[in-house]
Prior knowledge:
By secondary structure, the chain is mainly α.
Amino acid sequence: MTETDPQRSLEDEVKDLDERLKKAREAEHGPPGKGPRLRNEMTGMGLALRIGTEMISALIMGVGIGWLLDDWLGTGPWMMILFFFLGAGAGVLNVYRAASRLGAAPDDGDANAPPD
């Protein structure tokens, strides 16, 4: 703790603490007007990357499983074709689930939200 000057009033200490808190918040989160807009732009970019990643990974997994089953069972390309379509269906379902959350109301308990 710091030693306080007896001449200094409580109001001055509160003002000083308020100024230090504002500076610390600005250093951590940036200026007050920039936070929500930047966060919304990054959320859109993150959603686009997530949708693309989920679609590609579902297709790769489907083709990979089908190829391994074809190799193991000796069925030619049939399992790979079947699992390609199953992977595509899984990818479309994941994209639909992610896109349907866009219209939903945001949760109040967002752990990543900066303090007010």
